[in-house]
Design goal:
The chain has 226 residues and is of the alpha+beta class. The protein has one domain: L-fuculose-1-phosphate Aldolase. The protein has 7 helices and 7 strands. Helix 1 runs parallel beside helix 6, helix 2 packs parallel to helix 5 and helix 3 crosses helix 6. It is globular and about 55 Å long. The N and C termini lie far apart (38 Å). The structure holds zinc ion. The site of zinc ion has 6 residues, from loops.
Protein backbone atom coordinates (compact mmCIF):
# COMPACT_ATOMS: atom_id res chain seq x y z
CA UNK A 1 0.00 0.00 0.00
CA UNK A 2 1.39 3.37 -1.02
CA UNK A 3 1.77 6.17 1.52
CA UNK A 4 -0.32 9.34 1.26
CA UNK A 5 2.65 11.27 -0.13
CA UNK A 6 3.27 8.60 -2.81
CA UNK A 7 -0.38 8.80 -3.86
CA UNK A 8 -0.11 12.57 -4.23
CA UNK A 9 3.13 12.30 -6.19
CA UNK A 10 1.70 9.62 -8.52
CA UNK A 11 -1.51 11.59 -9.09
CA UNK A 12 0.44 14.72 -10.07
CA UNK A 13 2.72 12.74 -12.39
CA UNK A 14 -0.21 11.03 -14.13
CA UNK A 15 -2.07 14.37 -14.51
CA UNK A 16 0.93 15.95 -16.22
CA UNK A 17 1.43 12.93 -18.49
CA UNK A 18 -2.25 12.86 -19.44
CA UNK A 19 -2.06 16.56 -20.35
CA UNK A 20 1.16 16.11 -22.34
CA UNK A 21 -0.39 13.19 -24.21
CA UNK A 22 -3.32 15.44 -25.20
CA UNK A 23 -5.99 13.55 -23.30
CA UNK A 24 -7.08 16.80 -21.65
CA UNK A 25 -7.00 20.45 -22.64
CA UNK A 26 -7.37 23.65 -20.66
CA UNK A 27 -8.72 22.76 -17.24
CA UNK A 28 -10.74 19.75 -18.41
CA UNK A 29 -10.86 16.29 -16.86
CA UNK A 30 -10.41 14.98 -13.35
CA UNK A 31 -8.49 12.17 -11.73
CA UNK A 32 -8.79 10.54 -8.32
CA UNK A 33 -7.37 7.89 -6.01
CA UNK A 34 -9.25 6.10 -3.22
CA UNK A 35 -6.64 6.51 -0.50
CA UNK A 36 -8.58 4.80 2.29
CA UNK A 37 -11.90 3.06 2.76
CA UNK A 38 -13.60 6.41 3.36
CA UNK A 39 -11.45 9.03 1.67
CA UNK A 40 -10.69 10.02 -1.90
CA UNK A 41 -7.89 12.23 -3.19
CA UNK A 42 -8.91 14.15 -6.30
CA UNK A 43 -7.89 16.98 -8.58
CA UNK A 44 -9.58 20.31 -7.81
CA UNK A 45 -12.05 21.86 -10.23
CA UNK A 46 -10.74 24.26 -12.90
CA UNK A 47 -7.13 23.11 -12.64
CA UNK A 48 -4.88 22.66 -15.67
CA UNK A 49 -3.57 19.10 -15.26
CA UNK A 50 -0.39 20.05 -17.09
CA UNK A 51 0.51 22.58 -14.38
CA UNK A 52 -1.03 20.84 -11.39
CA UNK A 53 0.65 21.16 -8.00
CA UNK A 54 0.17 19.53 -4.63
CA UNK A 55 -2.06 22.40 -3.45
CA UNK A 56 -4.53 21.52 -6.25
CA UNK A 57 -5.25 18.10 -4.73
CA UNK A 58 -8.30 17.82 -2.45
CA UNK A 59 -9.56 15.13 -0.11
CA UNK A 60 -13.23 14.26 0.23
CA UNK A 61 -15.32 11.55 1.85
CA UNK A 62 -17.29 8.94 -0.05
CA UNK A 63 -20.35 11.22 -0.14
CA UNK A 64 -18.34 13.97 -1.84
CA UNK A 65 -17.94 16.28 1.18
CA UNK A 66 -14.68 18.19 1.17
CA UNK A 67 -12.32 17.35 4.04
CA UNK A 68 -10.28 20.56 4.35
CA UNK A 69 -6.51 20.17 4.64
CA UNK A 70 -3.77 22.71 5.32
CA UNK A 71 -2.04 21.86 2.03
CA UNK A 72 -4.93 22.83 -0.28
CA UNK A 73 -5.02 26.07 -2.23
CA UNK A 74 -7.36 28.80 -0.94
CA UNK A 75 -10.70 28.64 -2.71
CA UNK A 76 -10.06 25.23 -4.31
CA UNK A 77 -13.30 23.39 -5.06
CA UNK A 78 -14.18 19.79 -5.83
CA UNK A 79 -15.14 19.04 -9.42
CA UNK A 80 -18.80 18.62 -10.30
CA UNK A 81 -17.71 15.49 -12.20
CA UNK A 82 -16.49 13.91 -8.97
CA UNK A 83 -20.01 12.43 -8.62
CA UNK A 84 -19.11 10.09 -11.46
CA UNK A 85 -15.99 8.91 -9.60
CA UNK A 86 -17.92 8.39 -6.36
CA UNK A 87 -20.52 6.33 -8.19
CA UNK A 88 -17.85 4.15 -9.78
CA UNK A 89 -16.07 3.60 -6.45
CA UNK A 90 -19.37 2.60 -4.84
CA UNK A 91 -20.09 0.13 -7.66
CA UNK A 92 -16.56 -1.30 -7.68
CA UNK A 93 -14.88 -2.17 -4.37
CA UNK A 94 -11.94 -3.54 -6.41
CA UNK A 95 -10.92 -0.22 -8.01
CA UNK A 96 -8.77 2.40 -6.31
CA UNK A 97 -8.13 4.97 -9.02
CA UNK A 98 -10.00 6.74 -11.84
CA UNK A 99 -8.91 8.78 -14.84
CA UNK A 100 -11.56 10.90 -16.55
CA UNK A 101 -10.31 12.65 -19.68
CA UNK A 102 -11.43 13.92 -23.09
CA UNK A 103 -9.15 12.08 -25.57
CA UNK A 104 -9.78 13.53 -29.02
CA UNK A 105 -9.98 10.42 -31.19
CA UNK A 106 -12.08 8.36 -28.81
CA UNK A 107 -14.48 11.25 -28.22
CA UNK A 108 -14.58 11.80 -31.99
CA UNK A 109 -16.00 8.30 -32.34
CA UNK A 110 -18.89 9.15 -30.00
CA UNK A 111 -19.52 12.46 -31.79
CA UNK A 112 -19.70 10.57 -35.08
CA UNK A 113 -22.10 8.07 -33.52
CA UNK A 114 -19.58 5.23 -33.90
CA UNK A 115 -18.77 2.55 -31.38
CA UNK A 116 -15.44 1.10 -30.14
CA UNK A 117 -17.05 -2.13 -28.98
CA UNK A 118 -15.71 -4.43 -31.65
CA UNK A 119 -13.09 -7.04 -30.73
CA UNK A 120 -10.19 -5.97 -32.95
CA UNK A 121 -6.89 -5.87 -31.04
CA UNK A 122 -5.81 -8.78 -28.81
CA UNK A 123 -4.29 -6.40 -26.22
CA UNK A 124 -7.60 -4.56 -25.82
CA UNK A 125 -9.69 -7.75 -25.74
CA UNK A 126 -7.50 -9.22 -22.99
CA UNK A 127 -7.14 -6.16 -20.78
CA UNK A 128 -10.46 -4.35 -21.17
CA UNK A 129 -12.82 -6.43 -23.32
CA UNK A 130 -15.29 -4.32 -25.28
CA UNK A 131 -15.34 -0.57 -24.66
CA UNK A 132 -19.01 0.50 -24.41
CA UNK A 133 -20.40 4.02 -24.82
CA UNK A 134 -22.50 5.42 -21.97
CA UNK A 135 -25.56 7.43 -23.09
CA UNK A 136 -25.34 11.22 -23.38
CA UNK A 137 -25.66 13.01 -20.03
CA UNK A 138 -25.85 16.72 -19.23
CA UNK A 139 -22.59 17.82 -17.53
CA UNK A 140 -22.64 18.38 -13.75
CA UNK A 141 -26.08 16.75 -13.33
CA UNK A 142 -26.88 13.36 -11.77
CA UNK A 143 -27.40 12.09 -15.31
CA UNK A 144 -23.61 11.71 -15.55
CA UNK A 145 -23.08 9.22 -12.67
CA UNK A 146 -26.34 7.47 -13.63
CA UNK A 147 -25.12 7.06 -17.21
CA UNK A 148 -22.08 5.01 -16.16
CA UNK A 149 -23.41 3.27 -13.03
CA UNK A 150 -24.34 -0.06 -14.56
CA UNK A 151 -21.52 -0.18 -17.12
CA UNK A 152 -18.95 0.52 -14.38
CA UNK A 153 -19.80 -2.80 -12.73
CA UNK A 154 -18.59 -4.78 -15.71
CA UNK A 155 -16.12 -2.54 -17.59
CA UNK A 156 -12.82 -0.82 -16.82
CA UNK A 157 -13.04 1.62 -19.74
CA UNK A 158 -16.16 3.48 -20.87
CA UNK A 159 -16.73 6.17 -23.49
CA UNK A 160 -19.08 9.00 -22.54
CA UNK A 161 -21.23 10.10 -25.46
CA UNK A 162 -20.27 13.57 -26.83
CA UNK A 163 -18.06 14.07 -23.78
CA UNK A 164 -15.05 11.90 -22.90
CA UNK A 165 -13.87 8.65 -21.44
CA UNK A 166 -13.38 7.15 -17.99
CA UNK A 167 -11.05 4.34 -16.95
CA UNK A 168 -10.65 2.44 -13.69
CA UNK A 169 -7.70 0.69 -12.12
CA UNK A 170 -6.29 -0.94 -9.02
CA UNK A 171 -3.94 2.07 -8.96
CA UNK A 172 -3.63 5.36 -10.84
CA UNK A 173 -1.02 4.00 -13.26
CA UNK A 174 -3.26 1.12 -14.26
CA UNK A 175 -6.18 3.53 -14.86
CA UNK A 176 -3.88 5.81 -16.90
CA UNK A 177 -2.56 2.95 -19.06
CA UNK A 178 -6.14 1.97 -19.86
CA UNK A 179 -6.87 5.54 -21.00
CA UNK A 180 -3.74 5.39 -23.14
CA UNK A 181 -4.74 2.03 -24.64
CA UNK A 182 -8.29 3.30 -25.27
CA UNK A 183 -7.09 6.35 -27.24
CA UNK A 184 -4.46 4.29 -29.08
CA UNK A 185 -7.18 1.79 -30.01
CA UNK A 186 -9.42 4.60 -31.29
CA UNK A 187 -6.57 5.91 -33.46
CA UNK A 188 -5.91 2.43 -34.84
CA UNK A 189 -9.56 1.95 -35.77
CA UNK A 190 -9.63 5.40 -37.40
CA UNK A 191 -6.63 4.45 -39.55
CA UNK A 192 -8.25 1.11 -40.43
CA UNK A 193 -11.43 2.94 -41.45
CA UNK A 194 -9.42 5.30 -43.65
CA UNK A 195 -7.74 2.29 -45.27
CA UNK A 196 -11.00 0.64 -46.20
CA UNK A 197 -12.61 -0.69 -43.03
CA UNK A 198 -12.12 -2.53 -39.76
CA UNK A 199 -12.02 -6.28 -39.73
CA UNK A 200 -12.94 -7.65 -36.33
CA UNK A 201 -11.24 -10.75 -34.92
CA UNK A 202 -13.17 -13.98 -35.61
CA UNK A 203 -15.22 -15.34 -32.68
CA UNK A 204 -12.93 -18.35 -32.30
CA UNK A 205 -9.86 -16.10 -31.96
CA UNK A 206 -11.61 -13.99 -29.34
CA UNK A 207 -12.49 -17.12 -27.33
CA UNK A 208 -8.88 -18.24 -27.55
CA UNK A 209 -7.70 -14.87 -26.22
CA UNK A 210 -10.16 -14.98 -23.33
CA UNK A 211 -8.95 -18.46 -22.41
CA UNK A 212 -5.32 -17.33 -22.06
CA UNK A 213 -5.97 -14.16 -20.01
CA UNK A 214 -4.93 -15.92 -16.81
CA UNK A 215 -1.42 -16.36 -18.26
CA UNK A 216 -1.09 -12.56 -17.98
CA UNK A 217 -2.51 -12.58 -14.45
CA UNK A 218 -5.86 -11.18 -15.64
CA UNK A 219 -8.55 -12.78 -13.53
CA UNK A 220 -11.46 -10.34 -13.53
CA UNK A 221 -13.88 -11.39 -16.30
CA UNK A 222 -14.32 -9.05 -19.28
CA UNK A 223 -17.28 -8.72 -21.61
CA UNK A 224 -16.60 -8.92 -25.34
CA UNK A 225 -19.39 -7.91 -27.67
CA UNK A 226 -19.87 -10.20 -30.65
ZN1 LIG B 1 -15.47 15.54 -18.60
Amino acid sequence: MSSASEHRKDLIEVCRLAYQRGYLCGTEGNLSIRISERTILSTASATCKGRIEDADLLICDQEGNLIPSSSQRNGARLSTELKMHLRAYSERPDIFAIVHAHPVTAVGFTVAGKSLEQAVLPEVVCTMGSIPTAPYATPSTDEVPDSIGELARTHDAILLDHHGAITFGADIWSAFYKMETLEHFAKTIMVAELLGGTQALPKQRVEQLLSIRSVYGLTRPVIVKE
